[in-house]
Amino acid sequence: MPTAKGQKLPTRTIVVNGVSFNMIHVEGGGTFMMGSTDEQESGAEEDEFPAHSVTLRNYYIGETEVTQALWVAVMENNPSFLKACILRGILRHYRKSTGLSSLQDADIQVYC
Predict the structure, then answer these.
(1) How open is the CA angle 112-78-71, to the nearest 5 degrees?
(2) Cis amide leading into 50 (omega within 30)
(3) Which residues in the chain belong to E strands, given as ranges?
(4) 17, 20, 12: which is closest to 75 by C-alpha?
(5) Residue pair 27/58 in contact by the 8 Å Cβ criterion
(6) What are the residue boundaries of the structural domains of the chain, listed by start?
(7) What is the pTM of this model?
(8) What is the pLDDT along the chain (112 residues), one digit of tens a residue?
(9) Distance (Å, rounded) from C-alpha 56 to C-alpha 61?
């Protein structure tokens, strides 16, 4: 059942080891072909064969990209080269140098 324009999609908030994230409900799955065909062989990896039919039912998908905090909460490791959020430091410096206080740590944390 699609939502009318301007209507908010149904969401679900999930908390894993103290880190919360929003999932958006996607309705109206469908069937599609996944994988490579013989005609596409030149750029395909071996594990992409054979092309096959995939059917999805309704599902939830993350509202935003996965943050390092969420990755660590779920996977219990952090393989990232950058262990700290550089964006947080940049935004804090910007806030300090401009005197703007509209950026709060909680706002910055959303992007880290």
Answers:
(1) 55
(2) yes
(3) 11-16, 19-26, 31-34, 52-55, 59-62
(4) 17
(5) yes
(6) 1-78, 81-112
(7) 0.53
(8) 455 666 777 899 999 999 999 999 998 778 999 988 877 767 788 888 888 999 999 999 999 999 888 988 899 888 876 665 556 666 666 667 776 665 555 555 554 5
(9) 13
